[in-house]
Design a protein that fits this description.
This protein has helices at 2-38, 44-51, 56-72, 96-99, 110-122, 127-134, 138-147, 166-171, 178-196; strands at 42-43, 77-82, 86-91, 125-126, 151-156, 159-164. With 198 residues, the protein is of the alpha+beta class. It folds into two domains: 2-94, Winged helix-like DNA-binding domain superfamily/Winged helix DNA-binding domain (Arc Repressor Mutant, subunit A, Orthogonal Bundle), CATH 1.10.10; 110-196, Arc Repressor Mutant, subunit A, CATH 1.10.10.10. A three-stranded antiparallel β-sheet has the order 1-3-2. Strands 4-6-5 form a three-stranded antiparallel β-sheet. It is elongated. 14% of the residues are buried. The mean pLDDT is 84.
Length: 198
């Protein structure tokens, strides 16, 4: 009788272990799906929401496990941990030059991109100043940039002050620290102007 009880216990333990492993694999797949669909860094609160848990510890553990899994693979994708415990699934930089031509269309056309560049480099900058430098057509650019969550504005007297968002920094892989970001942008502009010269 004791042997039969032990066998039943072993079978139950094995089933429990299988359920736990299956749940873990499902949760890892959920985190991966969330990072893939978002196309931007996700914080622990957003991952908890997808996993239907309040445990940030669990969300962090799963994100780290997934990150390690990706680092062990020889693929073009990677998962990075950014500051403030945010995670992003992205293409490794080595592959970008090879596939850039396959992108159907840029995020922004030239006009709005120039307006965004000016705001990013001069921020915090008044909307009035941006209009003086870039012209009245930039009202449409600013509206679009706000809708895309690349730029935020706050009232300052009778004008608005514009600055870039965290999403802007994440999307363009720039620092969240404004002084560091401006240095990074200066290098980008210099590299771009060298490429433009014949």
């Amino acid at each position: 009788m004791q042997k039969a009880e032990k066998q039943a216990f072993d079978v139950e333990a094995a089933l429990q272990q299988a359920r736990t492993t299956e749940k873990m694999q499902h949760d890892l797949a959920l985190v991966e799906a969330a990072l893939y669909v978002a196309g931007r860094p996700l914080g622990l609160n957003e991952l908890c929401s997808v996993l239907k848990t309040r445990s940030k510890k669990k969300a962090k553990k799963l994100a780290k496990m997934l990150m390690q899994g990706y680092s062990g693979r020889k693929t073009a994708l990677e998962i990075l941990e950014l500051k403030d415990e945010r995670y992003v699934l992205q293409l490794k930089t080595d592959f970008t030059p090879h596939v850039r031509k396959l992108v159907k269309r840029p995020l922004l056309s030239t006009g709005p991109l120039k307006t965004l560049s000016y705001i990013a480099y001069r921020q915090p900058v008044s909307q009035k100043r941006v209009v003086e430098v870039r012209g009245h057509h930039v009202y449409g650019h600013i509206k679009m940039l706000k809708e895309m969550s690349l730029v935020a504005s706050e009232r300052s007297g009778r004008s608005s002050v514009l600055r870039t968002t965290e999403y802007f920094a994440d999307y363009f892989a720039l620092s969240h620290d404004k002084a560091t970001m401006k240095k990074e942008l200066k290098h980008v502009f210099e590299d771009f102007s060298k490429q433009e010269k014949p």
